[in-house]
Structures are given as structure tokens and as C-alpha cells.
Design goal:
By secondary structure, the chain is an alpha+beta fold. It has two helices and nine strands. A hairpin with a 4-residue loop joins β5 and β6.
């Protein structure tokens, strides 16, 4: 065989190897294209999406249970608005005209705003700070004085837009 034929065959073989290599590279790199996706739509719809939905539902249910437990705990300590029984002092916020009615032995301290004694029976409250009875309905309370309810159904009525009271014991807001 002549040198020219050998060179032509060598060039043809090199050209064939280059073409095969190029086609192989092209085939490998086309994975993930629109015509040949790495993840199929059916996998997304039938496997991945339901799994994600289940995880989200589980997380939401866990948080809802946690918040419900926290709310119930606060309610049992008197921290829920409306009524309760506080074993220690809790802050209760009233708006003007709202009444805080208490059970016997409840203690109150006006911290912010203004309020007056309220209730059907006298003495309405006992001012533990001064050691005096608050007998008249509508008698203004003094800020930072500790009051005790000695007759069930007595309490205070807020006379300011925002009134904050520390409360210990049984109470309802009306």
C-alpha cells in the first residue's frame, strides 16, 4: 500500500473517531433537555408533590397542636382574655367601660390607666396598701395600690381607653 493510501485511511479513522466522540458527547449532554428530562412530570405529580404535601401537612399539624397546648396552658393560668383563675399575677387589659368581676380573695393592682370600684355589695374592695375599705361604687382606684375582693361579684370598671390591671385569682371580664 502506498503512503498516500495509508495517510488517507489514518485520516478517515481519525475523522470517524472524532465523529463518534462528538456524537457520544452530544448524546450524554442532552440529558435533562425538554425532549429527555431528568425528572419526569409523572414523578413530580405522583411521587414528589404528594410527599412534599404530606411533610407540610405534618409540620402544620404539629405547630397547630403546639399552639393549642400553649393556649390551653395560658387559659388555665388566667392568661386568656375573658375569664380565668390566675395562680400568680397576670396582666389583664381592659378598655373603657369594661368591668372586671372577681371571686372572693382575688387581688388587683391598677398599673396603667384609671378604674373605679364596681359591684353590688359594700365594701367593694379592700385597699391592702392603705388598710382601708373601698365602700362606694364608682370610687377611683389608686395606681400601684393592691386591692382585695372580699365579696364575690365585686371588682372594677375601667374608665380610661386602655387600663392594665395585675390580677391574681378568679375573674371574668364583661
Amino acid at each position: 500500500m502506498s503512503k498516500g493510501k495509508k495517510a488517507a485511511i489514518a485520516i478517515a479513522v481519525l475523522l470517524a473517531v472524532a465523529v463518534v466522540s462528538g456524537l457520544t458527547t452530544l448524546a450524554v449532554t442532552s440529558y435533562g433537555s425538554q425532549s429527555d428530562p431528568l425528572v419526569t412530570m409523572s414523578y413530580l405529580n405522583e411521587t414528589l408533590t404528594p410527599a412534599i404535601r404530606d411533610e407540610i401537612t405534618k409540620a402544620v399539624d404539629e405547630k397547630a397542636a403546639e399552639l393549642t397546648n400553649k393556649f390551653n396552658e395560658l387559659a388555665s393560668q388566667g392568661g386568656a382574655p375573658g375569664s380565668g383563675e390566675a395562680s400568680g399575677f397576670v396582666v389583664v387589659t381592659l378598655t373603657e367601660g369594661q368591668t372586671l368581676t372577681c371571686g372572693v380573695g382575688a387581688e388587683l393592682m391598677l398599673r396603667i390607666g384609671s378604674a373605679v370600684a364596681a359591684g353590688p355589695d359594700s365594701p367593694r374592695l379592700v385597699d391592702e396598701t392603705d388598710g382601708a375599705s373601698v365602700t362606694g361604687e364608682g370610687t377611683a382606684l389608686t395606681v400601684n395600690h393592691l386591692y382585695m375582693v372580699t365579696i364575690a361579684g365585686n371588682g372594677i370598671k375601667a374608665t380610661a381607653g386602655t387600663t392594665k390591671i395585675l390580677v391574681s385569682g378568679e375573674y371574668t371580664i364583661g
